[in-house]
Amino acid sequence: MYNFLKQWWWKVLATVLIIYTLIMGFLIPLGTGIVDIEPSKTNAGDTVQVKIEGYNSHFLKGNGNQSLGIKAFLKNDENLLCAASVEAKSDRTLWATFEIPADLKIESKTDFYSIVVTDPYDGTFFLANAFGISRVDTSLSSRNVSCVKELTIEKGAATTFPYREILYETIRNLFFHVPMWFAMIAMLIFSFGSSIAYLNSGNSRYDIYAHQAVIVGVFFGILGLLSGMVWAKNTWGAYWTNDPRLNGAAVGELVYIAYLVLRNSLTNDITRSKVSAVYNIFGFVIYIVFIFVVPRINDSLHPGQGGNPAFSNYDLDSTLRLVFYPACMGFILLAFWLSAILIRMEIISKESAFIDSKP
Amino acid sequence: MQLLKETWLLVRKDLLLEWRQKYALAGVILYVFSVVYLVYTALSADNALKDIEKKTWNILFWVTILFAAVNAVVKSFNQESRERYIYYYTILDARAVILAKLAYNTLIMLVLSSISSLIFFLMIGNPVQSPVIFVLSLVLGAIGFSFVLTMLSAIASKAGGNATLMAILSFPLLLPTIMLLQKLTRFAFLPDVPYSSYDNFLVSMLALDAALAALSYILFPYLWRD
């Protein structure tokens, strides 16, 4: 292990991966989406001109003023209405005219339709359940409407991150918030393994590994909490919520800060090494049980839990993965690098203290 | 066989000590009574005792048990003189020592939690409608608390049996136990709960207790050999 920690090739790899993460994570643009539409409701039978405000859209790209190939739809589970005409005013604004049939079948008083736009350059994007159609005259017989134009899901030409409501640009935090936890868990596993090795061999070098790895793990845990809190404020509306993942993170920090306090409270070197190794193993197992069992019992606001879609559902063309996997690898290696520096400093200071103590 | 014999002897020694001194258990029960009385007077001052919610009852109950448990178990490894522990060290197997402590502390916790629930029933009210589930959660809780706290009191005793250290070491590690117990106890407040609705918590709790026992058994010899 020590030989691996002293090698340099994986540190170069860590640097390259983190620089790659920073560049790609911030420079790849977000995909196209719809920010707002105006008006957002109408009555059946009306002809309505809807102003669609796009985000990162290129309505004029390659088309001049012709809006060639841009199609707009109103869609719900049963009906598909298409725009009679579409006109692009700028790259960000699109006017779509819909003729709503008077005998459109309406389930409830007002039905909500998603507005879907297909653009040859940007692909298909939509704003879900944004447009309400109400029925004034209930005496008419009703029918389902389906458009002649076909709605096909097309991929945009550019490489982009998925555009999601609520998340918007904060989706980039995925490359920084999540790898912090992976780096922390990697450090805690490293520390756990070192503590087992210490109890088996009694070699004090393993005790130094375990201690320094916990310091780096706690550091990455705090970074994970901070990056998560900022993200939570932006998307969930509060810095802290009673979420099993957050409880798990808080408990982890408490367990390992208690480990550091325990080390400081013991003065005899060998007792300290042994006792803290025992606590480290005991705490790690309970902590792992806690973070893997409890989120399965309580619902979480985190993606992929409690009915929330996981990020993998958004990532249809794997652009997120393209940056996310290198980011995880990079930050885990960075954590090992940090711990390697701390370990070598600690070993040198122990050795020099030993040399100084000789007459 | 030798191991079990030693364990039994140690448990008997601890029980005998407790019987002669009548200090630890009596002290902790008085402690529980004081806490419950404090809660009782605080609640009745606000006329809140009548309509206390089951949720509140649940939380108060387990928090009281938690503090009582820490107080009951913290002395496990430094109530006798240091010389006597050295004597034990020369004649006993470390695994027998931890097994005996686990068994004894579980026994103490069982007595303690049954008496606490009696005091709660008397003073704050009895919301329990499915006694079987309540007793199950009491037993599993006693086991869980005593397993975590016994090991941690062994660790804290190495640092001079500091009570603050015991608290900061044990509370985060007791959180999973408390959360599972609270979930399980909630079912005790409903009549006729089918087994399938709480078996998840029951199995998790059993698994956690088993893992704690195994860890204590494996790790304690390293602490004892000092």
The neighbouring-strand order within the major sheet of chain A is 2-9-8-4-5
Strand content of chain B: under 5%
Please give the most extensive interface between any two protein chains, plus how many residues each contributes: A-B, 27 and 32 residues
Structural class of chain B: mainly alpha
Please sum up the structure shown.
The complex is a heterodimer of chains A (359) and B (226). Chain A has helices at residues 2-6, 9-27, 174-201, 204-235, 244-265, 269-297, 311-314, 319-357, and strands spanning 33-38, 41-43, 47-55, 71-75, 80-82, 85-88, 93-99, 110-119, 123-134. With 359 residues, chain A is of the alpha+beta class.
Structural descriptors:
heterodimer; A: 359 residues; alpha+beta; 5-stranded mixed beta sheet; 4-stranded antiparallel beta sheet; 8 helices; 9 strands; 50% helix; elongated; B: 226 residues; mainly alpha; 82% helix; 0% strand; globular
Task: Tell me about this structure.
The complex is a heterodimer of chains A (359) and B (226). Helix content of chain A is 50%, strand content 16%. Chain A is built from eight helices and nine strands. Chain A has helices at residues 2-6, 9-27, 174-201, 204-235, 244-265, 269-297, 311-314, 319-357, and strands spanning 33-38, 41-43, 47-55, 71-75, 80-82, 85-88, 93-99, 110-119, 123-134. In chain A, strand 6 (85-88) and strand 7 form a beta hairpin. In chain A, helix 2 runs antiparallel to helix 8 (319-357), helix 4 packs antiparallel against helix 5 and helix 4 (204-235) runs antiparallel to helix 8. The longest helix of chain A is centred in the C-terminal third of the chain and has 39 residues, at 319-357. The mean pLDDT of chain A is 85. Chain B has 226 residues and is mainly α. Chain B has helices at 2-21, 24-45, 54-73, 82-91, 94-123, 131-158, 163-188, 195-224. In chain B, helix 3 packs parallel to helix 6 (131-158). Chain B starts with a helix and ends with a helix. Chains A and B meet through helix 5 and helix 6 of A and helix 6, helix 7 and helix 8 of B.
